[in-house]
């Protein structure tokens, strides 16, 4: 527990310290204020209650991750054989397609949500 003592445990602190990705959406008050925030920034709109931020849940769809955890729980020599095969290149070859960078996807989703609320309200992203 001491290791995580310095890590914030509230969404707002995690958001302001940019430790996670968030999806921004309009509140009812924000929808009613269409175009009325020409000079406002996102932080102001959050404080006014026109915009809310929800953390984006991390989704790990790589079976390699789950298999690695399972193998590590087995112990013994199986781990060495698995470690040689558990890499992104092998997974992509088996999949037949490149795996997208999930962090880039989350960053893009966050940015699009910021742009959408600011476009509605007339404010600026930044």
Topology:
Elements: H1 11-16, E1 22-26, H2 28-32, H3 42-48, E2 51-55, H4 63-74, H5 78-85, H6 88-95, H7 102-121
Antiparallel strand pairs: 1-2
Jot down its keywords.
52% helix; 7 helices; two-stranded antiparallel ribbon; 126 residues; mainly alpha
Number of distinct helices:
7
Describe the sheet with the most strands. 2 strands, antiparallel
Principal-axis shape = elongated
Q: What percentage of the residues does DSSP assign to strands (E)?
A: 5-15%
Q: Termini, distance in Å?
A: 34 Å
Task: Enumerate the strands of the largest sheet in spatial order, edge to edge or round the barrel.
Answer: 1-2
Ranges where pLDDT stays below 50 over 5 or more residues in a row are: none
How would you spell out the order of helices and strands?
Answer: HEHHEHHHH
Average residue-wise pLDDT:
83
Q: Which structural class fits the helix and strand makeup?
A: mainly alpha
Total E-strand runs? 2
- Percent helix, as a range, is 40-55%
Radius of gyration: 21 Å
Structurally, the number of domains stands at: 2
